[in-house]
Amino acid sequence: MPTDSNSNDPPSQTPPSVLREGGIEYGFIGTLQKLKYEYRLDITDRASLERNFRKKFESLNRCRLTDSEFARLLDEIVSPDVFSAAKTLREINAFTRDDGTPLNYTLVNLKDWCKNTFEVVNQLRINTDNSHHRYDVLILINGVPAVQIELKTLGISPRRAMEQIVEYKNDAGNGYTKTLLCFLQLFIVSNRDRTYYFANNNTRHFAFNAEERFLPIYEFADEANQKITHLNDFAARFLQKCALGKTVSRYMVLIQSEQKLMIMRPYQVYAVQRIVQCIEDDGGNGYIWHTTGSGKTLTSFKASTLLKLNDHIHKCLFVVDRKDLDRQTREEFNKFQAGCVEENTNTAALVRRLLSEDYADKVIVTTIQKLGLALDENSKRNKHRRKRGQATYKDQLEALKDKRIVLIFDECHRSQFGENHKAIKEFFPKAQLFGFTGTPIFEANATLKQIEGTQASMRTTEDLFQKPLHAYTITHAIEDGNVLRFHVDYFKPKEEKGKKPPKPGEAIAKRAVIEAILAKHDAATAGRRFNAILATASINDAIEYYGLFKTMQAEKQAADPEFRPLNIACVFSPPAEGDKDVRQIQEDLPQEKADNEEDPEGKKAALKAILSDYNRRYGGNHKLSEFDLYYQDVQKRIKDQQWPNADFPPAQKIDITIVVDMLLTGFDSKYLNTLYVDKNLKYHGLIQAFSRTNRVLNGTKPYGNILDFRQQQEAVDAAIALFSGEKTSEQAREIWLVDKAPVVIQQLEAAVQRLDSFMQSQGLTTAPEAVPNLKGDEARAAFCTQYKEVQRLKTQLDQYTDLTEENKAAIAKVLPEERHRGFKGAYLETAQRLKAQQGKGKGAAQPVPDDVDQLDFEFVLFASAVIDYDYIMGLIAKFSAPGSGKAKMSREALIGLISADAKFVNEREDIAAYIGTLKAGEGLSETAIREGYARFKAEKDGQELAAIAGKHGIPTAALQAFVDSILERMIFDGEQLGDLMAPLDLGWKARTQAELALMDDLVPLLTKRAQGREISGLSAYEE
Questions:
Q1: What are the DSSP calls for 1006-1023, one per residue?
Q2: How far apart, in whole angstroms, are the C-alpha atoms of residue 984 and residue 982?
Q3: pTM, whole model, 2 decimals?
């Protein structure tokens, strides 16, 4: 065994062939040896990996397996299903031995993960039928491969490194599905200076999709959220044997309903540890300040489940506010662990479960209202029970007075919690209370006044919960990239003679607001890729806005047939009138509750008319009496913006939802990016409302957009200062808010200049037509890197709602639209060519350069939300229209538009060729254009296939049937290929060569016709 005296020296006995892999790997192995990992130089292949696993398994389970038993055991436990393997790793399993006797076994020491053996192996090769992958470094826990570390050189995009792991996993015959590597729980990617980690998963949750979204990727951090990114520092903290064992066993969550593995973020783990420690020390109460969008439900679920294991705790209550949060939280908890929380339909059910000794009732999710009713002697139910001579709920719960109970409160600053706090503390003297909040109440933003004398109202979060236990502020979350920054546009109306300009906080005319929204909405939402909320000051204002939008959009449509009206929805709670559900919803909607007390009939009539419009537009049947169903449908449609227009037409989506209090807290949608503000907001209310817009999606959503019609800059600055955490307010402003447009324009200018310098260094002019003349793949990769940055900055500027005419002129000067479009087309053509080479030719005579293999293209940045298939067909119809009455694009401009959009990357040649067959002004309708294109494409496809069939001596009909079968099922079937080649009557060697030659021609055709969808099994031929 090598010594660990010098972590940067290659271990002794290292084969010379492995030394070429470089020093990072050996330095890392040395670090692990110092952490007392055993370095297993002898484990180099599948056989030695399995021998070691067998030895560890037999030792742990105190048994000796025969060879046939071990072969059967491997057959039973090795699974291509990552989720199933993860469950097997964490459970006691059953196995029947050769003599029929049962063996209950575990793969690792489940009682104490720290007592497992921890070993490290490197350069392991798993040779299967089609895979010769080498795995840089693997960590084995009790012989089970649990963690894979992929080491890269400096400057590699972590996304590309992750994409490579996805590619390896998708290879036919890969080691991840057919060997013990199926048990991998975590992947770690490092270039030594930057280190990232993420959970393993099945393909559904482990793939870059068309939107280039990937599972959560983490950087490790300490409790103060200082990043720990250097590989050695990361290893010293994260990969300590006991810490890693706890990460895998405690801080990974298996989500049953989605069959998905999740790993908790560092700040979530620290919060849970602080709560658990506080309970073990009996250290009083505390609160967790974790910002909106940081996953508080998962943190509280994990805290609750770990407390369930604590024998000293009698009950753990997770207390939420309002009926919808009760349902939502219960569903989330049950998603993390099926059936772990039952529904409490009423107060009686809550009391029954509180008194139950059943282990299943140890963790209870309930609303604060039900708990308050149970403890209130004067509640109707308690009075009614007393009249009938029955014990009140409070009397029944007396048995719990001396028990240790933990109460965890979600959004713990809700106003009505203060009213119940005293009763809960008095009734449960041994209870410990913990609160979660995204926006704590401090002295500055407290609305409840402290009352002099003996009676005091609890008004700040600290009043209620004594002390902060852990903080993860919005500043942290933005720095981490877990939520987006904000772009705030303080709208100022044009000054009119004789009229004083409005002061900050004052409302302006609603018509002026709507005019501005209609002018800016397409820019703000990236051509309606996203949607928006309009926050109004009262229900009457919301009703007035809704009516005005209808009127003004109808006027615009009458004046301009090309005007595309926005789909406007409106949601506010109706007068409660005894409806318990509505009353409960309104407890956290103070403005709506107050508004509904005036002219309730007028409010009801207006909401009925809004519902009627909604039903007409979307084909629903919503009623006022089932308001909650309508509210849920509105939320679903906001989220349904994720579907492309081809799958879910724009007419079925919502562009803007008018609200008063609703949707401004607790609602999440990655496809909501804009908030129009026509109400006064401050402190936590402002942060909560702004935070509806800043969920991370991908490069097409660079920030959350706020368009404020009340010029509330002072309120924004005050809120940032209050919730900035440990940063100064000026530092926080720089982190929270995007740069002003002139700064980004300068950055764009610098990026264009860098592109210009690069093209000149290659002896070329800076023009789109010069890009094909770049020599060598490294130069092409460098161009892609340069232009991707130009596009990123342009995407950011395109969504600014406050660009002045000067700004627009500056952008047009730096990057004229026609030139930009030409470069986008050149980028897509170059990127498509380079992308096809990635991951190939490792052992070839001309290996793919690292610059190409490691490049992350981000095609989604080059796909317009506006330009889709329908839009293109409409433009072609206009090109064909007779006369000069309509503005028409030239043939070249049309082709340029298609070439510059990533959505048409596989079809642009066909569309361009079709446009080439048309004559300007020949007067074809859009229907005729569509039908003509379908015929043209069918003929072209048929000719392409016939040419391949003729080249390889196969009947065209047989090849057509083969291709149709693949595209219908999206599965490549090797047996069908054999059947196709059988009539040629070739020997096995000649037949193999003939199959490979045919597939060389078919793979590009199949890839193109699949239009970005993956054909299972085709990757084996994509070399």
A1: HHHHHTT---BTGGGG--
A2: 5
A3: 0.85
